[in-house]
Design brief:
heterodimer, A: 217 residues, alpha/beta, Rossmann fold, 7 helices, 33% helix, B: 401 residues, alpha+beta, 9-stranded mixed sheet
Chain lengths: 217, 401
Amino acid sequence: MYIEAIDLGKSYDGAVVIEHTSFRADEGESFAFSSPSGSGKSTLLSMLGLLLDPTSGSVVVDGQEAGALSDDARSDLRLRTFGFVFQHTQLIGSLRAWENVATPARFAAKLDFDPEERAKQLLCELGLEDRQNHYPFQLSIGQKRRVALARALIMKPQILIADEPTNDLDSSNAASVTEALFGHAQRGGILLYATHDQQLLERATRVMRLNGKAFEF
Amino acid sequence: MKDLVLHSLKMHKVQTVSVTLSVALSVMTLFALVLVYGGVQGGVQLNAERSGAQIMVVPTEAAAELSGEDLLFTGAPASYYLSDDVAQRIAGTEGVTRMSAQFFGQTLDASCCSVDTASRLIGVDFTTDWTIQPFAHIDIPDHLAADEVIVGASTAGNVGDAITLLDNQYTVVDRLEPSGSDLDFSILLDIDVVRDICSASEGLAYLWDKYGDPHELVSCILVDYEDESQYNRLITRLGNIDGVRVLERSTLVSEAQGQLETVFAILLGAGVLMLISTLAQLFARFYSCVWDRKSELALYRAIGANRSQLRKLIGGEVAAIVAIGLVVGLVLGVILYQALIGMLQSGTAFPFASLSIGMMVIVGVAFAVVFALIALAAIAVPLSQLGRLEPSLVMQQGDID
């Protein structure tokens, strides 16, 4: 399994946000993307996660060029291969913690696990065994981030994408989330994340920084 | 997916209940309206097709007390009689091709007879009658035996049954097809047998003191004609006979229909307004549903849902709302239908033949199809919005309520 960005670029109405970004991440690697706020990290992660079509270049996932896939095939690839931890957690307020975690499984035609059981198991592994039935408004930001992380992991993805995963967290929660993220890479997964956090940057296998409009090593 | 649909319905409770109620009320109103209208049209059609008597002649005093519609369609008890001589005069009137007399007896009920609903005892002159045969399954002989009766479609008793009328036993020789008129609630005997029964009745003695020997009386005379061009003259000639009033079926049917059309127009207007309201509510519900839930739907897209699954999610919500609204509406529609019939029949007389269960089911299925199409029309725009929803939107959103 690998993910490769080839000369990736994105423009909005002629304004270039990102250009000429290329890299390849293999199993067990963790890539950190660092740049000032609002300079395109989220856009880059969106393109890498097949949420956004690039204006130029391409994303290749394990030999498949994403741009050549149908919308349904890309949806399936997102479901089976990618896990997302969004900056603002994006939990659904009316669902309990374990229901939020189990949500991606509801879109899978076939599963080799019980969604509720696995959701609760992941929450336990992330130290939230006593928060499984809580609603998001009853959770702290650190707990919400861990619920979001559990949701990203429920489909056993090979590529985990995290946008500012330790933003707004105290050191204890940040450490807990960091361990969980890097645990994924240690188990052979690929971790791609954007961050300003120096400690988190230091843990990455490789760091790409913005130079002009291109992310470079 | 089912869980997400149920979750979404629960999370938008007020909207869900409001739209479901709107669907139910629309279905109820329109379904009841169709059933009532169908029943009236069926009654009118049955009368037109099967009842050959276009003209009915009744005593003037009967017509003064009761409306023509009552006399013609509902068989309101009319204990007024004409001399048999009048029948002879009518028979001799130019333009009359055939005529037949009927003698109305009393209304029977369970207190005196083995009938479960109030049933009218009518003596028919089967030697001349042509109006009953179209509803019969047997060739009606010129004279029924003294212990034989024919019962209307809504009257107790099946062919071969023995029924008791005023302490006498009779055998049912035929059960008529529904007519949509008083005939359905009548028990028919030979005219002379009914005259004998009424003559022997102490309770009716005051009538015979007033009108004379019942064997020389008739209650109404059914008249038929052939020459359409002479119709108006025939009506005039019949109207000139002393002591009678001429009821014209075509006029009464159109008057009854005219009265009902006002009611139908009001109900139809209400039904159409409710339908438009339902359409608007469904549209608003699902348009705002897609618009307000962009973050949630974009999240689903980001975590792996394809467009088809989102469409199923929205479609599932519509289907659930419309299905529940339909079922509730159809049940309430049947209740409203019965209430409307009761109200209409108490206010005006008209021929009525209720739709069969099979036909009601067909109408119900037709409603299901129509409302499914309405629901599809209502969500067409929201569904197309879904197609344009970018999953990357999720990266720009905050928490989802």
